[in-house]
């Protein structure tokens, strides 16, 4: 009987060693995944910042060239374009289609502004699925919309339909 018990103990020890090895491997892979996600976020932000800077530079050039015109036309949507700050009377159509679709999902799924949606829920509503790359892209765009007053970002990180004016640095207004 002792040899059977000894064999079982050896097998248990071998299984325990294997489990510990797999746990260590998972921990290492989790660290690699986290570093890759951080790198992806940095690259997405860098590209978006570059697009914004180029758009701002182009807007300044256009403003200087057209200083004699009293009313500026509403910007036309361009994929990857800058999200203008929300103001009364500014139509949603000035936003790129991706941003319009995010607003549409939030307006449709919460017409009263109740029950804010997380980025994952918005991504599913857009039909993008739940892969981290798609969810992070939606989260980045939703944050930009919230920063510009097109959405409300809750303390939990979820987003609600709603518009609010925001102060624009350097626009000369007191709002």
Any key phrases for this structure?
175 residues, mainly alpha, Arc Repressor Mutant, subunit A, 2 domains, two-stranded antiparallel sheet, 4 helices
Q: Summarize the biggest pleated sheet.
A: 2 strands, antiparallel
Radius of gyration: 25 Å
Shape: elongated
Distance between termini? 85 Å
Order of helices and strands: HHHHEE
Q: How many helix segments?
A: 4
The CATH architecture of the largest domain comes to: Orthogonal Bundle
Strand order of the largest sheet: 1-2
- CATH fold category name of the largest domain: Arc Repressor Mutant, subunit A
Number of domains: 2
As residue ranges, the low-confidence spans are none
Q: In percent, how helical is the residue content?
A: 55-70%
Got a strand count? 2
Q: What structural class do the secondary elements suggest? A: mainly alpha
| Beta-strand fraction estimate | under 5%
Average pLDDT, rounded to a whole number, is 81
């Amino acid at each position: 009987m002792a040899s059977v018990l000894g064999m079982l103990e050896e097998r248990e020890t071998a299984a325990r060693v294997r489990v510990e090895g797999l746990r260590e491997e998972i921990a290492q892979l989790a660290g690699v995944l986290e570093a890759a996600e951080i790198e992806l976020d940095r690259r997405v932000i860098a590209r978006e910042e570059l697009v914004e800077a180029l758009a701002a530079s182009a807007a300044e050039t256009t403003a200087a060239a057209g200083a004699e015109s009293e009313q500026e036309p509403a910007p036309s949507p361009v994929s990857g374009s800058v999200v203008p700050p929300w103001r009364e009377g500014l139509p949603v159509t000035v936003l790129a289609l991706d941003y319009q679709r995010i607003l549409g999902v939030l307006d449709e799924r919460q017409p009263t502004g109740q029950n804010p949606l997380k980025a994952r829920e918005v991504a599913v509503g857009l039909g993008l699925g739940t892969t981290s790359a798609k969810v992070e892209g939606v989260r980045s765009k939703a944050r930009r919309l919230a920063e510009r007053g097109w959405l409300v970002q809750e303390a939990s990180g979820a987003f609600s339909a709603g518009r609010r004016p925001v102060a624009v640095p350097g626009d000369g207004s007191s709002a």
